[in-house]
């Protein structure tokens, strides 16, 4: 085999190996990022969620399992955030306003969870709730009761939180839907309010 032919054959082999590796590592080219992989994994295999103790803006203790039988929208925030968390709060308010009033509380609820529990005491959670119109009933603002619970929740939802250089956090942001059986079923972009509400409407 001539040198040029050998080089061509080697290049084809390397390209084929690279393509096969990318196919395997990206779920058949459908998940090129960890965030896409997280969403695809949840759609294909809804995740059970841990019975973590939470404390809401009124100091009441509860767990995600208290919502069984209802659909639940979940977001992860911290109250000092003025950027992406503001967008999340706005998206949740839009969802709340577009869901039929008769379904709120009975068939559907919203829950904002702070991943900064050391700073976000109930008073700060209340302030955040007032900012977006969270009533503490249909829409609660809460924090994990302890560090182990926080770690378990972040792991179950696939939320990544990294301290930044300014005392805040970098984190992935999305709208999470927990089904009536208490499992995480779907994850959508925070600006996908309309399809999120449409999916809810078909199930309420």
Descriptive account of the structure:
This protein is of the alpha+beta class and 204 residues long. It has helices at residues 3-25, 34-44, 84-98, 122-132, 147-157, 193-201, and strands at 47-48, 54-56, 61-62, 71-77, 108-114, 139-144, 161-163, 169-171, 175-178, 183-188. It contains 6 helices and 10 strands. Strands 1-10-9-4-5-6-2-3 form an 8-stranded mixed β-sheet. It has a two-stranded antiparallel ribbon with strand order 7-8. Strand 5 (108-114), helix 4 and strand 6 (139-144) form a beta-alpha-beta unit. Helix 3 packs parallel to helix 6. The radius of gyration is 21 Å and the shape is globular.
What are its keywords?
alpha+beta, globular, 21% strand, two-stranded antiparallel sheet, Glutaredoxin, 204 residues
Report the sheet with the most strands, covering strand number, pairing sense and barrel closure: 8 strands, mixed
* Extended strand count: 10
The level of helicity is 25-40%
Shape descriptor reads: globular
Please work out how many helical segments DSSP would assign.
Answer: 6
CATH class of the largest domain: Alpha Beta
Output the helix-strand order. Answer: HHEEEEHEHEHEEEEH
Radius of gyration: 21 Å
N-end to C-end Cα span: 68 Å
Largest sheet, spatial ordering of strands: 1-10-9-4-5-6-2-3
Low-confidence stretches: 2-32
**What is the CATH H-level superfamily of the largest domain?**
Glutaredoxin
CATH architectural group of the largest domain: 3-Layer(aba) Sandwich
Average per-residue pLDDT, rounded, comes to: 85
Could you tell me the strand content as a percent range?
15-25%
- Helix and strand content put the structural class at alpha+beta
Q: What is the number of domains?
A: 2
Named CATH topology of the largest domain: Glutaredoxin
